[in-house]
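General statements about sequence and structure are easier to judge against a single worked case. When preparing material for the folding task, we compiled for one chain both its residues and its backbone structure tokens. The amino acid sequence and the backbone structure tokens for this protein are reproduced below:
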Amino acid sequence: MGIRRHIPFVLLTAIAAAPLSVAAHDDDDDLEIVTLSNRADLISGGDALVEVRVPRRASRVEIELNGDDITSAFQVVPGTRNLRGLVAGLVVGRNELSAKARGANKVRLTVTNHPGGGPVLSGPQIVPYFCATPTPQPATATSPATNQSGLSTFATGPECNIAAEQKLYYRSTQTAGGAGGCSLTLPDANNPPANPCFKPYTPGPAPADMATTLTGVPFIVRVERGTMNRGIYDIAVLFDPTKPWVDGTAPQAQWNGKILYQFGAATGQPRRQARSTSSWTSEMALTRGYLVAQNSMTDSSLNSNRVSMSETVMMMKEHVGDKYGPVKFTMGSGCSGGSINSNMNASIMPGNLDGITISCAYPDLETTGMEVGDCVLLAEAYVKMGWSDGGPAQAANNLKKTAINGHLDQNGCHAWYNSFGSNGKVGNYFARSVTSSAGAIGQSSTQTNNCQLLASQVYDPVNNPQGARCSAWDWAASIFGRTSNDLSLGDTTDQRARDTRDNVGIQYGLKALLSGAISAEEFVKLNEIIGGTDKDSNFSTARTVADRRALEIAYQAGIVLSGRQYAKTAVIDLRGWDDQGIHHQYRTFSIRERLDREYGDHDNQVIWRFSTGLLPPGTGPGSELTLEAFVTMDQWLTNLIADTSRRSIERKVRSAKPAGVVDFCIVPVSAENPTGREFNLALCESKVARYKVSASPRQVAGGALSENILKCRLKPLNSADYSPVVLSTEHLARLSAVFPDGVCDWDERGVEQERARAPRDYTDGPGGESLDKEPESHPGKGHGHHHGH
């Protein structure tokens, strides 16, 4: 052990102060031990940045970990009496930190450490799962082809741990994009660009084409790549290779303490480890001193377990705090599936992200998936009704489809079918897709599966009933549980995960009927033939029925975006136009509706609209929005962390919003709108036709804009509800046969719909339990004293 070391309060080697560190602990008797990067019971990776807060009368502090003296790992925080150090060597499980000093009570803090390979609270990791390799490997008889990791060593263990590596790059002075410009694609991508903007850097004389940052330092970036919670991560930050930066106790000055966390798009559930689809090459953030982070397990296309995704963000933030320094705030960003993961962090683990700048926004996967499922069923039904044959009546039939779908035109549902219509398939399948604007449907001749596994490894009801199931709910079985966990179902061998899909009671095309867009016969026939899907995602004549326990879990976990939780996060929503595709504008307003209904206002959310396409344009009106949103959110969060009052986080977020930050849409410059911005969203549509907000099949069926009811409660079928349409006795009888238990009562809360109770810990099983109160240090045995030497 060597000589025991204490820390008297004299000048020691300085370390950077934590932004929110107190000057001294006011209690005259008690020290206080605090883990800075995460809660003490959620630590991972074997180390933790720890602060010991020291009362004024205390002196000669000694610190121990599991009985071993670690005082030498701590230094005085400049301007305070507090001590800070990176505590390494934590064992998996419970660890005891203790501190004592002359003039103060001895205190202890239990630190629970989890493996860096995960999990922390999301429950058992899914198997089988195949690790990435330094170079891609072809499939064998027992394993699928592997992805390239971007790292030089092989993975170990079922967690696919790969040793971290660091590389240096510099930003060249070339302009990005355009003819002859450089590429912001990753310089070490699997297919690297010929002329990357960021080039490998070797310490020594500065390259002649090295750029400088907005803060005036050489634009040199250190990129750390490693694995965490099975994901492959990149962390990029400005770096001075002439100065040390070992861990979080002594950050380099050019990092501003802020994180930009980037989330990848799409959605999927592959069982193969891969690199993130995001890129750390965000000039906008790096040049301003931000640290840029991403992890493949926070890419929506690579992980459909939203709890483990949020857990990964938590672990990444802790790693940054431990190894880079205390974090001031974290800003999230993402489009489409990346917006889902931004929103899910706000709903499942509020505080993971302090603010988000999102685009192509969806609230969450569960309620977005309702539209996908409805569109698939409707497209198939239209074929059966003879509405997709491309004949003379096709134009009229397209108008009927549009009225039933609620979209701009019939192509919206076609886009959903072709993009994600097969995403719920649990086994091997031949994908079906829409092959014409009329809505004809064809089937692929190539078999595939959503696990990206060998066909022999995947579920088949006859030949391989215990094989891997490939739906999003099966990917998140640690959260939703499996039906084999429910003995009341009488089958303990079924490995199917509980899921939330449901269309019982849905009257497709109800508002289209009431408006006269379709006839009574068409309305009745559509609902007779549309059917649903079974638990293996095969088409069925019966409607789809959700597992009630899955519904309860989805709401409790915050997996259905909770407006009450979302109210705690600052949001700038950049809403573009893709209404012939899948990113319908109403989704942004659906999120707002949830805030209004569940919290009472939407003052934490700002909507900036543009009509030129899905993302802000490269040039012209609206091209400034991406940078403007980033800079605005930076100021919003800077104001937020300066608020040290005891007000609720919801009130702080609203108060911190910079003056003049309001909703607007981009419009043509005119005398009425000299800035090219209309600040009354209600007038946007009158200025630009594309701003008209469409709806969805469930809204046409009577559902609300908030669209957060996974399974509706039922009411008796009543002929008066169809006024002014008068249904015949025959039609009412046929509808009664379709809806024997009643139709949706949209005035009631959904089945099992309740307030989110997140974050939750799923270690002990699906459904999870609410986290205990955050651990705090408490007095240990005996009064502190000093053993001189």
User: Anything to note?
Assistant: The two ends are 14 Å apart (CA to CA). Residues 365-384 form the longest helix (20 residues). The CA atoms of residues 6 and 62 lie 5 Å apart.
